[in-house]
Amino acid sequence: MDVMISTLVNNGEALAQMPDKGVTTYNWSKEDRAAFRAAAQGVWAEWATKSPEAGAMVASHEAFLKRIGLAQ
Predict the structure, then answer these.
(1) Alpha carbon of residue 16 to chain centroid
(2) Distance (Å, rounded) from C-alpha 54 to C-alpha 47?
(3) 58 C-beta neighbours (distance < 10 Å), count
(4) What pLDDT does 70 receive?
(5) What is d(CA 38, CA 50) in angstroms, rounded to the nearest whole number?
(6) With 90 as the cut, is the pLDDT of residue 23 above it?
(7) Could you give the CA distance from residue 26 to residue 33 in angstroms, rounded to a whole number?
(8) How many domains does the chain have?
(9) Residues 6 or more apart from 15 whose CB is under 8 A from it?
(10) Distances from the Cα of 72 to the Cαs of 34, 39, 63, 64, 68, in angstroms?
């Protein structure tokens, strides 16, 4: 849990510094994120067949998205 909180704080601090470094960030709407996620997931099955490592990565990421409630 400490690592998660530390990561959230570090990410927030980095995000706050980005405009001063000339970086523009965008906060997509929930609907846009869902559409992008659906499009990405549509090609994961194909990529998962390219190597055992790719298959493991896809499976790991799918499990992660399920765990955090972003996939079913």
Answers:
(1) 19
(2) 7
(3) 19
(4) 85
(5) 20
(6) yes
(7) 11
(8) 1
(9) 25
(10) 12, 15, 9, 11, 10
Q: Is residue 72 a part of any domain in this protein? A: no
How many whole angstroms separate alpha carbon 57 and alpha carbon 61?
A: 6
Q: Contact 54/47 with Cβ under 8 angstroms?
A: yes
Query: Using one digit for the tens of pLDDT, what is the confidence trace for 6-17?
Result: 999 999 999 999
Q: Is 28 within 8 Å of 36 (Cβ atoms)?
A: yes
Q: CB within 8 A of 40, min separation 6: which ones?
A: none
The answer as to whether 11 is a domain residue is: yes
For residue 22, being part of any structural domain is answered with yes
Model confidence at 1: pLDDT above 80: no
Q: Which residue has the tokens 């709407």?
A: 29
Tell me the CB-side half-sphere exposure of residue 31, using CA atoms within 13 A. Answer: 0
pTM over cut 0.70: no
